[in-house]
Amino acid sequence: MASLDQDLGPVLDKDGVRLTVDDAIATVTLTNPAKRNAQSPALWRALAQAGRSLPGSVRVVVLRAEGKSFSAGLDRQAFTPEGFDGEPSFIDLARGSDAELDAAIAEYQEGFTWWRRSDIVSVAAVQGHAIGAGFQLALACDLRVVADDVQFAMRETSLGLVPDLTGTHPLVGLVGYARALEICATGRFVGAEEAERIGLANLAVPVDQADAAVRDLAGALLAAPRDAVIETKALLRGAQERTYEEQRGAERAAQARRLRDLAGVGD
Prior knowledge:
Layout: E1 10-14, E2 17-22, E3 25-30, H1 41-52, E4 60-65, H2 90-94, H3 98-113, E5 121-126, E6 129-131, H4 133-140, E7 143-147, E8 151-153, H5 168-175, H6 177-186, E9 190-191, H7 192-198, E10 203-205, H8 210-223, H9 226-239, H10 244-263
Parallel strand pairs: 3-4, 4-5, 5-7, 6-8, 7-10
Antiparallel strand pairs: 1-2, 2-3, 8-9
Helix pairs in contact: 1-3, 5-6, 9-10
């Protein structure tokens, strides 16, 4: 999925993550295709930094990856006694206190949490393998456009672990508890056709049409007034936690704000 950000100077380019900005559209690219964009704590910190570096003009963030795979998941070097240079190994973390381990995982999660901010709409453009942490990174976004060669899989359970990079909540929300449990517990692959059918993907297209599909979607998202999109996103995000009557009230309050804003009437 090359070319979405090819002519733009990077705002950030480090540890396998590049951020470019073109007015209202930002592109975050995973840039280590030689390792199938395998993930590490340094990459997660770079993702978090990308979120903090977004200018206020940005309305749509596209997440993409160089090479044939979106992300093969966690770099297995994390499980070696040596770990990554300058990083505590996962074995060392496991030997620490509960508070230290919790704080480390919370820091890792920060690279996955900002994609659903109310002031942006995030779109993951996913091709090839999106496994484990790669699957969870795609799930971190609001929307997903997948190439027809995509292979999602949640392999943590087969390694004796659990998905812990914020992927469980959106997965259950998209496909329901029973399907989410089956996908996670078996670690099986989910291809493009199934991903679109069960709600993991908003759109599945041939690989050579993926760039164009993402551009078209970004353009459509930018067509509506920004404040209306922000209010609508907040309404939809909160719908699962509200009762029907609470949602009715939230709709009324949001619409009142929009009408006053359009009429130029202060609160």
